[in-house]
Amino acid sequence: ELKDYTAYNNSIHTKLKAYGAYVSQEQQNQTDQQITNEIAIKVPVDKFDELMNSLSGDGIKVLEKNISTEDVTGEIVDIKARMEAKKQVRDQYLGLLKQAHNMKDILEVQGEINAIQEDIESAAGRASYLTHASAYSTVNLTYFQYLNGVTAYDAEPTFFSKLSEAFKDGTSVISNLLLFIISIWPLLIAGVLLTVYFKKW
Description:
Layout: H1 5-18, E1 22-30, E2 34-44, H2 48-54, H3 73-99, H4 103-135, E3 136-146, H5 152-155, H6 159-183, H7 185-200
């Protein structure tokens, strides 16, 4: 929560360059009560702590902070191992392709080679993505400022406003129930008549 949104917003975008970071996504919203910005920051892992420490300061109230980690080393190793296995199978098919003597065999072997090559390229892309992702940390930062004299107390619904909304919701439920009962009146009458008939019978 900020006291000067404009100053903080400009400061954030300026200081990112000093940490080798960049904004990968940003969304700003403004109402009569407050202006809010949500940004996703990509920062080199070795600069993560420095950037985090620079986000707070005077006139800034930190409402929530959460840090989590994910180790992708095992997945990268597994992907590379499967890539090597796929390459060996591909090389075997290439050997078979040289020995093929008719068009049918050539097409079948070439089809297998193409499928294996697609798997290898897909795995390589995934490994490249994970390698890049593991070099950067992601910071999801939301900051806002209340406008027009509004305070956190004003923005938070009071007990009486919640009570009023509850009464409105209750009234709406009863109204809908009555409308539903009215809409099925032929079935209700038929049910009453059948009940009377069976009792007499």
